[in-house]
Amino acid sequence: MCASPDLESTMSIKKRLIAVLAAAVIAGAAAAQPPGSTSTPKFTHPLPNVPGKSLVAVEVAYPPGGKSAPHRHAGSAFIYAYVLSGAIESQVGDAPSRVFTAGESFFEEPGAHHSISRNASATEPARLLAVFVVDTGDQPLTIPD
Hints:
- There is one protein chain.
- The chain is an alpha+beta fold.
- The chain folds into two domains: 1-33; 38-144, Jelly Rolls, CATH 2.60.120.10.
- Helix content is 19%, strand content 43%.
- A hairpin with a 5-residue loop joins strand 5 and strand 6 (98-101).
């Protein structure tokens, strides 16, 4: 038995409406997530007195409310982070979470888990400079959970 043209047209409209609503829900959920951070490489330089090691500097910028996903870094990486501007909340390993402001610094041992890395402000941007001492060519530098 064949459906009438009006019924087929109504079903087609309903299917399109469901698809549009589903897309809107997905887009809304994505928009509700806090913005992420952006990383900009600043330099890479081999250490002449430590063969096989390099210094790598990366600037990490957080928009207001921005955060990075929990992550680890390259297995050989020792990281020294210096807050350039704003306030950044960080938790590395089993240490308690702490807010670091411009001019303060923290470090990460090789293999450490960085569970919290976010802008502590919902209204002001924040930036940090992450300096890696890493095996030359060790990639990727950041591995999300």
